[in-house]
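Form 12-C: Joint structure prediction
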Amino acid sequence: MLKYFFKRCMAILPVLFVVSVLAFAFVHLLPGDPARMMAGDDADEATIEMLRTELGLDRPLPVQYLTYMGKLVRGDLGISLRTNLTVFDELKLRYLPTMYLAFAGMAWSVVIGIFFGAVAAIYSGKWQDYTAMMVSVSGISVPQFWLGLLAIQLFSVHLGWLPVAGYTGKFSELILPSFTLGATVAAIMARFTLSAFLDVLGEEYISTARAKGVTETLVMWKHAFRNALIPVITMVGLQFGFLLGGSVVVETVFAWPGLGRYMIEAVAVRDYPVLQALLLLYSFHFVFINLVVDMVYALINPEIRYE
Amino acid sequence: MKKTFFTLLALLLLAAPSFAETRDIIYASESTVKSLDPHDTSDTYSGAIERAICQGLMGFDKNLNIVPLLAESYTFNEAATQFTFKLRKGIKFHDGADFNAHAVKVNIERMMTGKYKRSSLMKPVESLMVLDDYTVQFNLKEPFGAFVNAIAHPGSLILSPKALETYGDEVSKHPVGTGPFIFDQWVSGNFVTIKKNPDYWRGDVKVDTITFRPIPESGSRLAMLRAGQAHYIYPMPAELLKIAERDANIDIIKQPSIIARYLIMNTQFKPFADIRVRQAVNYALDKEAIIKIAWGGAASEADSIIPPNLQFYKKQAVWPHDLEKAKALMKEAGYENGFEVVFLTPNASNRLRATEMAQQQLKKIGITGSLQSMDVASFYNKLEGYRVDDAKPLPFIAFGGWSASTGDADWGTRPLISTEAFPPAMSNFGFFSDKKVDGFITAGLASANPDIRKKAYADLQDYVWDKAPWGYLFVDTMVAAKSKKLKGIYPMPDGAFSVEEAELVD
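Section 2 - Result
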């Protein structure tokens, strides 16, 4: 088992290497000159040229690549072209807010999703089922930015309960953005819970339980619900990566100082070091989550091994 | 499940913050702060925050007129090569350092190293001499009549010499100046807070703190203002104006800007080398419609090559929308059947819409072609890629915009229509070249005497207006919105703002 884990971890390294090469190539192939963007619209050529030299953008691409890799190996992500702060510090400032948002979003989606999924399954074919599924289909179809603005309109402007946007460390600031982020995933979770539930309800042990005269409530909660949760929990892991990446829209609507918004700002001004670092970080997240999921599988069922 | 619901509800209620009235102002803006080092700042927003903390020898008033600030007065020689400033006495920086000629010298010499984004402001300077503790003299390499504007520019703010020594270039995170507000905290990408300077030399500051927060989504920005969680928002989104106007607690502020919008045509090549074609373009444009539909009404038609708020502006007659004249001119120039161009535009929705409208309007006189929209970085990359000696690029019409940050006619014309400004040097992307125009521009810089300069730029504007180097469009109106409780804060024509007199009233 340990050998498998070790092998699995080592397999990440070549992936990350390829990603770093791609990140560099991709970012430098974007049209647009970062020196120009930094210097501003009304700058003259001398200023732009000065910046280009200072940033090392005047050197040949292979040289820039080697410099970048050399620093990367030493854990140096470079300096943000836009703010002159180190990329590492900038990421540090934004990493936690994004994580909070993703975890809180996950919490919403688990609570709401499982609730609606279970209701739909238990009252299969009745009005509760249709209502629950209608809500969850809406959850998938409604664009996040619209849902976010609606929530702001209701809870902040009309009721005055919650802050509109921004994050300065208060719990209240987390509620609306995380709900908006979690809504889409909640819908997916609801549908997934429903099908897992229905699968379990078709199993023989459920019929056996019923035949033995176990009350319907007990059948549902003790026998069906628990077993239906196992595939749902796997789904949670997979959706987490989606939440981390999907926060771009939510972070913009709610002015959340996280990685998603940072990415957008960095693209707009061609902040090369930041873009490279973010691409690496996002790739790392996905690789890492997959690794964890694989390991959990291997732990649950040692017969499952991806060689 | 019931229990979960009530727990959540309880949490919601508990978390509801109270928004008690304090003397703390929240300013919600579209932009994020990029630096707080004035010498190394190129964006208006960061520059405006720096202006609340630091001051220059000269500054701008509401209408972008130049007024003395840390300097009491200045004199200059006839050749516009020597400028002497008398400094104000008894002013201290926030860290206790004295403001004097030494402080000015340290700052200007820092800019003169050429290492910073605003170093170009001090490019004309040959040397800076300290005549006494409160007098400094700038000696220029050649006549530069607009030098006082460079001194008043937010890039020329004076930082505490002590802070420069302590922090070096890290001063961008610890700006120390002489202004009404003291820098408090900057969390990159999140907020900047400044607090009242109790010993401000110009008198009492009426608010305790101002927090600048970036709120990129315009709907959220307005929601913050309506919910009382922000006191001032900029820009106020034009498409939401009606909602804001219905709110009794909100004031809308409109202010003409110095941002000019125009269509760039590559004038060196057929068919735009022909002045009649360029004039036809100007007759064919229905600017009123573009302003109304693409710009939410927040602009006024261009009536000179530079906007009214720039120094030495002279009003001209607006080009009328006259399709018959446009068609006649096209025929005269031999393009009765029209020709094809490429329309280039940044993909910001208002710019795209404006270009699409221009495209439709020009179609009526036979100027047709496809439209390429791209993000701002790619757009400038494309325009800068063209060179005047390139064989014959496809004729293009590009949606251009310019804000002359020094507030002076020189910076509104020289970088855009002088021969020396062909890319890559500056931003004459249409390669417009005219000896007389170059002559007027040189004359405008040859003296620091306002009367002489005024004459030169008046001649320039009269002359170039009919030459139609651009398809003239309009000058942006800046729209901000604020809580009725907030007084004394106003937007400046250059897109910045002044908070020195800010005050919260009940």
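Section 3 - Comments
The radius of gyration of chain A is 24 Å. Chain A touches chain B through 64 residues (CB under 8 Å).
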